[in-house]
Amino acid sequence: MTKADGIAALPPDAVLFGVSPAMQEVRQRALKFCRTNVAVLLLGEGGTGKEVLARWLHAHSNYSGGEFVKVNCAAIPSHLLESELFGHEKGAFTGAHIAKPGRVERAHLGTLFLDEIGDLDSALQSKLLHFLQDGFFSRLGDQTERVVDARVICATSRQLEDEIAAGRFRADLFYRINVLKIVMPKLSERRMDIPRLAEYFRNVHSQQFEKESEPFPPELLSYLQNLTWKGNLRELSNCIARYIVVGPEMVQREPTRVRSAPLINRDGSQDAVPLRKIAKEAVREMERNAIIDALQANHWNRRKAAEELKISYRALIYKIRDAGLIVKRPGGQARTGSTPAPA
User: Fold this and answer.
1) Which of 27, 56, 213, 219 is the most buried (most CB within 10 A)?
2) pLDDT, tens digit, 9 for 90 and up, residues 3-16
């Protein structure tokens, strides 16, 4: 929920934390941590909102009057990252024509957010550790020590314990940044928050693209709640952005698609399919794909597929017929669901 994700501002607490038990636990921990000047480590998959929470912690901290400075440790090449972090003096390296303060100095009396710290180059980990221990550091090409008072928040999608075991991450740095920890849940673990999040993204993207849009009908919100969302909040935001820009037919994800076709009126003219009908088609398509996945996973054994889907065998046969699916026979032949086939 940052500008990089197409979102203009920090969302209200009701949207950020939602109502799901997983996010209520995050909220309780965030409220305890926000006023403390100790390192916070945010863990979770990409797109779960770690940067959003970091900005919330900054906005509710004693350092909110200063700047929120983000450093993406994975996006900046390792040979440039030291200069970006700590700055450099004139002549420190080829091309250093003037002295330049780093992002650490910019974060003085503010918050330094080290995103994807698990990707930090091993050569920089010791220098960062030294800074985190006492606030002192030196610019490249300078022997003078400088001091910065900043709130430090780190985030990563990696399992740092595994990185330590593999020798890629310093254990002492891990213990330094892991004073307080918050784990951000996946979107699939907070499905009851999706309707509120979807409406928030709809309003934000409607303003961003200057296009009006109607609130989502319950059927479409229910459909969104039942998707996997491997990209988490970022994927949901992008999906709603496509909906605003292109229309309902673009609320689609592979392999599940929301399809639309024109309605033919009596006078031969065409109207767009109502959103309610599109949502129903989306749910039907999603159900069809779930049946296909279950049949394939169980080598086209319909009884086992029914057990996996937690529906009766009779209900599965009905759904297969209704969807017009082809069910493979053990010998490689195929039959439609309307004709009995070996179970």
Assistant:
1) 56
2) 433 333 689 999 99
Mean pLDDT to the nearest integer, 66-81: 92
Q: Considering only the C-alpha atoms of the chain, give the largest distance between any 2 of them, rounded to a whole number of Å.
A: 83
CA dist 205 and 61 (Å) reads 29
More confident of the two residues 179 and 300? 179
- Tens digits of residue pLDDT in 269-292: 444 445 555 556 666 667 777 787
Q: How is residue 193 written in tokens?
A: 């928050």
Residue where the block lists tokens 């020590």: 145
